Amino acid sequence: MEKIYMIPVNDAYDSDCECPLCSLRDKAEKNYLDYYLGPSLMEPDTRKITNKTGFCPVHMGMLNNSEAGRLGLGLMLHTHLKDMDAEVTSKLEQSVPQASSGFLKGKDYKAKLTACADLIDKRVATCPICDNINDAMGHYIDVIIWMFKHDSAFKPKLQNKTCCLPHTSLLLRAATNLSQSDAAEFVTILLNNSKETFKVLEDDVEWFTLKFDYRNKDKPWGNSKNAIQRSMRFLSSDRRDFDEQRAK
Fold this sequence. Notes:
By secondary structure, this protein is an all-alpha fold. Helices cover 70% and strands 0% of the residues.
C-alpha cells in the first residue's frame, strides 16, 4: 500500500524527466519560493530568519523575477538590510586599524580584519531556501532507500531512471546505510544507468560536433541538437540552461 510520503517519489520516477531527483528538487524549490513571498513573510518567526540570513544570489534572483511578490521582497530586504547594517557596520568600525608610527604598532589589527571578513562571509553565504531544499532532499533520499528495501514495485522504476551525477552522489552516500548485499544491488543499478547515459551523451555530443562538418550538413540531427544542454544537466544538475534550450 502506497504511503503518503512515497507519493512524491513515485510521481517523480513515473514522470517524463531526465532526473527524478532534479524534478523533486525543482518542486521543493518552487514551494519554498512561493512560501517566502506569500503570507509567511509577515509572520514574526519567518522575518527573524530572513532578517538574519537573506538569500543566496540564485534565489535572490528568482525571488526578484516573481512579479507578484516584489512588495514582499522589498519588505524582507528592508529589514534584512537594517539587521546587516547594525551588525556589519559596528564590526567594521571596530576593525579599523589605529594609525601608528615608529615602534608603536597595534598587534591585533590583522585578527580584527579577518574576524570582520569572516562575519561578512558567513552572513552572505546563508539562505533559508537552500537550507530547506537540502532538508527536503535528505528526506526524499531516505524515502528512496526505504522504498528500495521494502517496495518491490519501486525497483523497476529505479532501474529505468538515471539521475544526474550530483544526485547519484547523494544516492551513493545513502547506500552506506544498506547492508552489503542490498548496497551491491542498489549500486549496480546506479552503475548500469550511468553507463548507459554516458554512452548516449557521448555519442550525441560527438554527432553534434560532426554536424559542423560540411559533409554532414544535410544529415539528420537525431537526438544531438540539445546534447550540450543535456550533458550539462547530467554533469552539474543545472536545470535552467537545458530547460531554456528545450523551450526554443
